[in-house]
Amino acid sequence: MAATPAPPAAPPKPTWDPRKVEAPFPWLRPTIRIRLTLLYGGMFLIAGILLLSIIYLLAAQALNVGSDLPFRVTGKSTVSSESCTNFRLLPERPTEGQLNAALNECVNQMRQNALDNLLSRSLLALLGLAVIAFAFGYAMAGRVLSPLGRITRTARRVAGTDLTRRIELDGPDDELKELSDTFDEMLDRLERAFTAQQRFVGNASHELRTPLAINRTLLEVHLSDPGAPPELHQLGKTLLATNERSEQLVEGLLLLARSDNQIVERKPVDLAEVADRAVDQVRGEADAKGVEIRGERGPAVVQGNGVLLERIALNLVQNAVRYNVADEGWVEVTTEAQHGQAVLVVSNTGPVVPAYEIDNLFEPFRRLRTERTGSDKGVGLGLSIARSVARAHGGRIIAEPREGGGLVMRVTLPL
């Protein structure tokens, strides 16, 4: 048999996510504290400018800049001044008009110098006070918003499924304390709801598995009877297959319910080892269908739940084997660590999958076409479970149509 050509390499997916782009200057992020600081400082600056303008206008009005002197010099006299340069231009014996004009110009010049000096010093004082006002406003905004920071930190801890956290904000009975108390009440209800859900999952696990296990045992006992008629034998096999499908459905639903939450207890798990175990479990089915499983699996250690991560790999590899071509089919399973992420890629030959049908594959009980709905090919929860488990680990799973038929399933998890 000729060697199967290697599959075309899937284009690398960019790890850049526009929703998670960090600003080049995070301290310039327009937070509420920065906006309150700008509001406090801006109001002080506007008030200072208005006050300075009023003082300047009142001082100019009091000094009567540009107006004539309220007195006149009569008689001939010699006048000199170091502050006024215009006296140097007067003749040695100026007339009364020349002398009065020079005096008027000199006094107005001194008035204007006084106003300019007042304006420059006031601007410097306003600049210094504005810096102090902005710093004081930043400190006060931080003090006012400190309860919001406490609420935010608690919300982040709760996002990690630590529903036992509470804010328990002390202080006056204001709007922030009301918000904190409302948030604590919401956490109480969420904790009760999640506790009830966990209790329900545990009870449902027992109540649903027990009768199915009993039915399977009874059917196996009847099938082991050599004296049973062939019709009963065939009926027993049909019922046993139906019972097995029901067990798979129950297990899938329970696992889907558990995997929708974040993983609290995490341990180092090597995706290569997980993928190897999944391949070992599916190899018998692949050999029976004539599907070749290949691919290099490099080390990629993540923090997570090994059982759930193995379920991701098992579901993807099983789907890749079951939905394959009849002759010379192959499945390639690779793992590697790149760009701070662990990547599991499962690609296979198979029927052509339209790109617009990709999203439907991840919906529970949603199938692509009739050839993907056979009872021997699962219950329609495999990819839904894989997506839920990936999200619970802070990762994601992406499906792409492969050129020539089949799919490329890419799972990325943070290291």
Query: Biggest sheet, open or closed, and with what strands and sense?
Result: 5 strands, mixed
Element pattern in H and E: HHHHEHEEHEEHEE
> CATH homologous superfamily of the largest domain - what is it?
Histidine kinase-like ATPase, C-terminal domain
Low-confidence runs: 1-21, 370-376
Number of domains: 3
Describe the model:
This protein folds into three domains: 28-159, no CATH class; 194-259; 267-414, Histidine kinase-like ATPase, C-terminal domain (Heat Shock Protein 90), CATH 3.30.565. Helices cover 53% and strands 11% of the residues. With 415 residues, the chain is of the alpha+beta class. The longest helix has 64 residues, at 96-159. The chain has helices at residues 32-63, 96-159, 175-223, 230-259, 271-289, 306-322, 382-392; strands at 267-270, 291-294, 301-304, 329-338, 341-348, 396-401, 407-414. A hairpin with a 5-residue loop joins strand 6 (396-401) and strand 7 (407-414).
SSE layout and pairing:
Layout: H1 32-63, H2 96-159, H3 175-223, H4 230-259, E1 267-270, H5 271-289, E2 291-294, E3 301-304, H6 306-322, E4 329-338, E5 341-348, H7 382-392, E6 396-401, E7 407-414
Outline of the structure:
The chain is of the alpha+beta class and 415 residues long. Helices cover 53% and strands 11% of the residues. It is built from seven helices and seven strands.
Quickly list its features:
415 residues, alpha+beta, two-stranded antiparallel sheet, 3 domains, Heat Shock Protein 90, disordered N terminus, elongated
